[in-house]
């Protein structure tokens, strides 16, 4: 009898120690069947494919909230992604769910973000046929754009979790694009908000936009008066409120993760506060108009000069019978902040401002 592979031993260990509600690696499904890895489980393999992809590397130069910050300590889209993943893994481990699946979804959930953060996403959505959403673009990257049009061939659970991590404006548990069928995917959806609510407060205070005393007193009384206390409160609540997910106790009729009513209400109110005082503050409107001008100008230029779009992107779109608009959106969305500015200046500054 042959010795089981390392992967098979890990899958057997999952079957013994993980919750009955956990997504087991042995049951993972890919759209295109492929020989299993002798060492890594399917979800570990997905994690590695995302981690080693070019879109993931570009996250280090994409805005989270503050465009071109002067300090080195502000979050980027990459550091946000890592914080989401770390928080989510803590929750997954405590609930005896699949950490590898959680990590893979966490690392891939934002790779479709446009340059310049949500301002860039808003600008693209205004001009993109059918509108633009970063979760949909993230899914397009892993399914279509990577590997010359072959995609990464990720498992269904990872692709679903990436697509369904987005949520509505008023509630961090809102369905929006649906609810992931795995609890691991649901963890990412909530932990994404937990991460950015807390680190955006931290960055806003560092930028002088907020003072600690500006934060809603009732929320602070419930969640905590420091960054670490708020994180601990939210994460602990995620774990203990959903303890049924470990397989102990009685599960709800619908296997959906949430937060306790009190913590959820305070978290949503704090998130709304950030929208009003940080994301949509008057000073941000000026930056948003600059971003909109850059994105719209680049879009118009590439629509009239498709030869300037990378040949690989054009080949993918043409092969799929998609319009040129899709290639333009794919190209701009994949840019980092500084590359978008470099291209903008290279194309337009010499002609429009060179005589000034």
TrEMBL record:
Please give one Gene Ontology molecular function term for this protein.
dGTPase activity
Q: Which domain of life is it from?
A: Bacteria
Q: Which Pfam families match?
A: HD, HD_assoc
Q: Which residues cross the membrane?
A: none
HD domain: from which residue to which, for each copy?
77-197
Q: Does the record carry Hydrolase as a key word?
A: yes
GO BP term, pick one: dGTP catabolic process
For this protein, the record's PANTHER family field holds: DEOXYGUANOSINETRIPHOSPHATE TRIPHOSPHOHYDROLASE-LIKE PROTEIN, DEOXYNUCLEOSIDE TRIPHOSPHATE TRIPHOSPHOHYDROLASE
Sequence similarity? Belongs to the dGTPase family. Type 2 subfamily.
Q: What is this protein called?
A: Deoxyguanosinetriphosphate triphosphohydrolase-like protein
Task: Please report the organism this UniProt entry assigns to the protein.
Answer: Chloroflexus aggregans
